[in-house]
Amino acid sequence: MGSKILAAVRKTNNIRLKNKMIISIVIVVFIPVLLVGIILTASYRQNVLDQATQQTMNNVDKIKKHVTDILRMPIEISNKMQVDDRLSNLVNSRYETKFDMVTAYWDFRYFRDYVQLYKEIHNIRFYTDPPMPMSNWDLLSADESVKNSDWYQEALDKSSSSISWHYIPDETKENQPYLSHVRRIDFPLHRSYGVLVINLDQDELNGILSEEPFDTMIFDSKGVIVAAKQPQWVGRNIDSMNFAKDLSDKPSGAYEFNYEGKPSKIVVEEVVPPYSRNGLKVVSVFTIDSIVSDANRVSRLGFTIIAASLSIAFVLIYFTSSFLSRRLLLLNRVLSKVSMGNLNVKSDVDGNDEIGLLSKQFNHMLASIRSLMEEVSESQMQKNLLELRQRDIKLKMMASQINPHFLFNALESIRMKAYVKGDTEVSNVVHLLGKLMRRSIEVGGRKITLKEELEIVHCYLEIQKFRFDDERLTYKLHLDDAAESVKIPPLIIQPLVENAVVHGLGEVEEGGLVIIDARVKSDRVVIMVEDNGGGIPEDKMREIEFACQDLEDAEEHRIGLRNVHQRLVLTYGEGFGLTLECPPGSGTRITFSIPLGGNLHV
């Protein structure tokens, strides 16, 4: 296989330079440009279509929220009516005279008040069973057509907690159909019941869809369109419309289908109010051509420009390659004379392009050789100087490594002196200081175990106890056995403890206490640092919280807490930062958690 490729490459050596350039331009430029143009055009078209689909889905979601808000109001009204004694008393009372009944009807104004109070409600009526002796526009006795209707029978068959939505005529409004909330209302004390019907305002429903950019509609569980951007669609069944006859069975989502003979996108969203056994569907549809027409026009324009540009480029490349070929042939003749040993020739190829520069460099070749020798000598000197500098850097690095060891050895000598002289307290503190410094220097950028981190904290607190005394500072440290080997970033807990000692207990004269607690809870290790100092003022607390969230390194920020918080967030994610609690007069508590496995969360 390799030999075949090598043979094919060698065959290209027999092709003239002008032809090679043309072939190369076609392969390297023409074909890739066409492929990129096709890919970008397709991607741009698809991106425009995806954006339109997403925008439509967002619009449908907004419509769903508006419709849910409108449907919520009749549900609240029916919930009130279900427990309202006034309606029960009105329906189940026995009146001595018709005048008493008319007076009772007149005094019961709650249905009318709801209609006037809420613009979403168009009308409210209640069908009684058994029938009332008299009816008005609010309380009705169901006639045979109502009793035999599906929605009325369905309401009677269901419990009072079940709500249904139907597009039904209102006999009190000239049988004009409305989207209606239907619910059975029971009066257990009187062993009677009725059916409450609340009509929604048609203009409110249509108004939600009027500003939509695409054809949008809302239909009920039976496929009846209850609202639409085009009002003439209201009242029609979805099955009678060719473009949407299969929509009633579609779940929520986006689909492709033919709309008026054109490829289109449709977005379907279900709206099921609380306590309802049926709901509504919101549908928005747009043709793909209407969305990608601009993209197609831009694509055609782009391909026209690309074709024109490539044609002009081909002509220019042809003449340019011919001109270059002639100049290279002239230079080749001069090089042939040089190969024969004639070093006194001179190239007459002029110009400042690459070939012209090559000709000038040829004329100055002998002088360039001497210059090259000087450059080689200078380069060798620079190389030697660089090696000396590198050795010097290595020596300084070794010295920087010796200094910490010298410091640790000096601290160990001081500790031994103090121990020999019987001052065990000073000896112990010097030992802890050396241990603390060694641990702080050795950790570097690697992670350490929680046990190692708390050993650093222990050393720090023992040194601070030596500085203050036992009456002013004590501490408690607890670490669950299961959390000892959990890996954490180094120097995470120690700055929090230092903050508690320096800031939290700075004004405490005696009885200062710092608690460090690390416990395993579920899949996390929860770490708490608490002190019993004077706490943090509310304004200072806000400054600290702002500093922890601020990414800028402002001078006024409390750097320790901010660095710890941001290291935790960068390592484990947003839910693993610091949490500050400062109840008035009870000190400060700082908590954070890390995954039990110590793995990165982001």
From TrEMBL:
The keyword Isomerase is assigned to this record: no
Chain ranges passing through the membrane: 21-44, 301-324
Record keyword Membrane present: yes
Enzyme Commission number(s): 2.7.13.3
GO molecular function: protein histidine kinase activity
Entry keyword set: Cell membrane, Kinase, Membrane, Phosphoprotein, Transferase, Transmembrane, Transmembrane helix
HAMP domain boundaries: 322-374
Enzyme class: transferase
Signal peptide: none
Protein known as: Two-component system sensor histidine kinase YesM
Organism: Paenibacillus harenae
